[in-house]
Amino acid sequence: MKENKKKNPQTLRRLLAYLGVYKGKLALAIFFTLLSVYAQVQSPKYMGKITTRLFQDVKEGLALDFDFILKTCLFLVVLYCLQGLFDFICGRILVDVSQDLIFKLRKEISEKVRHLPISFYDSHSTGDLLSRMTNDVETLGKNLQQSISRALSGGLLIIGILYMMIKTSPTLTVVFIVTLPLSYGSTKFIAKRSQEFFRQKSQGLGAMVGFIEESFSATDLIKAYGYEEESEKEFIAHNDQLYKVSYKASFMTGIMLPVMTFISNLGYVAICIVGGLEVLKARLLIGDIQAIIQYVRKIGRPIEEIAEMANIFQASLAAGERIFAFLDVPEEVECQEESLDRPIERVDFKDVFFSYDKKTPVIQNFSLHVERGQSIAIVGPTGAGKTTLVNLLMRFYDVDQGAISLNGVDIRRVHRDQLRDFFGMVLQDTWLFKGTIRENIAYGKPQATEEEIIQAAKQAYCHNFIQTLPQGYDTELNEEASNISQGQQQLLTIARALLSDPEILILDEATSSVDTRTERLIQKAMNRLLEGRTNFVIAHRLSTIVGADTILVLQDGDIVEKGDHQSLLAQDGIYKGLYTSQFAQEEKS
């Protein structure tokens, strides 16, 4: 709780800094709010004049002055119309401010996503990140709009009403002010306890979104393993937790209004009693009592709204805290000290050490020299460091010690965007986005012509199956690309890599999830792609790398065997054992 208290002023200062950009609009909103408040505080005064005139005419037995009453009523109608107009203009300005703020925050978050290291996404739930980018931003913008509107109108209205009350009757004003400590104490008491509930609600909503997102994406797996009941239990646990904190947050929000209404009614009763005594002593006009009563009723509403706004503001602070925590995540450090030029003649790993958690080493003292056009296959048991090498080569992570260089240039001295322009990747887990097949193939080269896209598809042996689809290259893939087979998805990713014309190609289990016929097509496409390029192949199916120039056998981050297929078999070591066992399994199948 102490840490949260420290964070609140920081979050508030940052929100005010964002709102500082809209000084002109907020000043205009304040101006129209002042006009609206002036119209509101004047109306009870003129209502009191009508009551006083009627009382005096009846008391003295005179004819009612309908002309005075009519003119005063018309003036009140004008006041009410102007008040409505001013409120509308102010509301429109604040809507513009809040929506523009939401737009800017979403843009900043989108930009932030592009500059965060892969390690951040490895350690954070996707659903929680989605909740920050959507729910928290929307909550912050909507609540700020309400908070600013109520704070402006409520605060100014309270000041205006108090001024008019003092001017009308200082005695009754003192009676009313006595009730204010009760209002303040109640607001502080409830707001203090609601803040933590709103923070827990935001966190619980993030966890819920994350669980639902993961469950939807793994629906087939859940059904295949009969995990429905366990999944439902997990959902119920998340839902129960979210229900508890949401209930407490909503309860604290809901209890504020009746408590403030009760306190306002106490003040109303006290004013009626004291005011009646003042009229009997001829110290006050009957119309002034009516005006004071109306002022009390009017001032009760902004006090209640400000009290309610305190809870809304706590929700805004909780959402803002989560958004700013995301925006404050350290970004990838970029430098542009050197640049690379085609072609890439050599790739060097020199005494590379790396660990993900800085405690458990994954790569230790790894060195490798690769010439242009060579095909390097990397094999080994799970956890040996095969995919880690690719992550380091692409600078998804940076080495702890040692260096990786292209053409003698340390890749840490090259901007990541430029570095990755030299690479093409085909992974086991295919990634295709919702869009046409044409758009997916051209993802790595948006300016590609129709002829280039078709040529890449032909080289990847997917042109024929694309032509059999109803809309051909204009066929729309759904979000999971489930309207085409796994093998067809993999062929499209190969076509995408072909079109981008990379200097270095990375294949990570590229054929492990396809059938034998599709695997042969992929291998034929790979043979075309490998010519004149450097190739890194990570594979468990050793039959796909028999023709590699060099095969590296990794174990615990070290190269334990190195050579071509025949030489490694002759060594009668780990590679031969892996190859023989796989060959025997294929023979049995």
Could you please describe the fold and organization of this structure?
The protein is an alpha/beta fold and 589 residues long. The chain has a six-stranded mixed β-sheet, with helices on both faces. A hairpin with an 8-residue loop joins strand 1 and strand 2. The chain has a domain of 317 residues: ABC transporter transmembrane region fold (Up-down Bundle). The protein has 19 helices and twelve strands. Its EC number is 3.6.3.-. This is Lipid A export ATP-binding/permease protein MsbA. One of its GO terms (molecular function) is ABC-type oligopeptide transporter activity. It is found in: Cell membrane.
What's the layout of helices and strands?
Layout: H1 2-19, H2 23-59, H3 66-115, H4 118-122, H5 126-168, H6 170-177, H7 180-217, H8 219-224, H9 228-280, H10 286-327, E1 346-354, E2 363-371, E3 375-379, H11 386-393, E4 401-406, E5 409-410, H12 416-420, E6 423-427, E7 435-436, H13 437-441, H14 450-459, H15 463-468, E8 476-477, H16 486-500, E9 504-508, H17 516-530, E10 534-538, E11 550-555, E12 558-563, H18 565-571, H19 574-588
Helix pairs in contact: 1-10, 2-3, 2-5, 2-10, 3-5, 5-6, 5-7, 5-10, 6-9, 7-9, 7-10, 9-10, 14-16, 16-17
GO cellular component, one term: plasma membrane
Membrane topology: Multi-pass membrane protein
Pfam families: ABC_membrane, ABC_tran
Task: Write out key terms for the chains shown.
single chain; 4-stranded antiparallel beta sheet; ABC transporter transmembrane region fold; disordered N terminus; alpha/beta
